[in-house]
Design brief:
This protein is mostly beta strands and 155 residues long. 8% of the residues lie in helices and 32% in strands. The longest helix has 12 residues.
Length: 155
């Protein structure tokens, strides 16, 4: 695989909502995973999305799925943010149980929810072992890039 092939894959990934891509060619495999994007000059004048963890004394929204979350309560909690714009789902189908509920213990890599973007279901996984402290988004609601979905209390 040539450097130009890798650059083409990166450009392909950058032009989509896809956050992870695996590719194999001539016995060589590559896996690209896109993380948070830096703000560009067009977005600098805009207010951050609600629940994005912005500072300035603004408390995140309270949740119908858990205790009210206040800025003082956030110390030591891990925020799970949406890596993409899409629709938030707590379960894999309307008839299924939610992936997690407030108070559930989770392991690193465990699926917390899915976000549908462009008819693709993207699994959002826990980045740490812990306990679900709060769920900040209602099922089937639209979410923005960087919006906080969950707070996890590390164990």
């Amino acid at each position: 695989m040539e450097t130009n092939d890798i650059k083409e894959l990166i450009e392909l990934l950058a032009g989509t909502d896809v956050t992870e891509l695996s590719y194999e060619k001539d016995g060589m495999r590559i896996r690209l995973k896109r993380g948070p994007q830096p703000m560009d000059s067009q977005n600098q004048g805009m207010a951050p999305p609600q629940g994005s963890g912005a500072t300035g004394g603004v408390a995140p929204p309270s949740s119908a799925h858990g205790p009210d979350v206040h800025e003082d309560d956030l110390a030591g909690l891990t925020a799970v943010k949406s890596p993409i714009v899409g629709t938030f789902y707590r379960s894999s189908s309307p008839d299924s149980s939610p992936f997690v509920n407030v108070g559930d213990r989770v392991k690193k890599g465990q699926v917390l929810c899915v976000i549908e973007a462009m008819k693709l279901m993207n699994e959002i996984e826990s980045e740490t072992d812990g306990k679900v402290h709060s769920i900040l988004v209602e099922n089937s609601n639209a979410v923005e890039y960087g919006e906080i979905l969950f707070y996890i209390e590390p164990i």
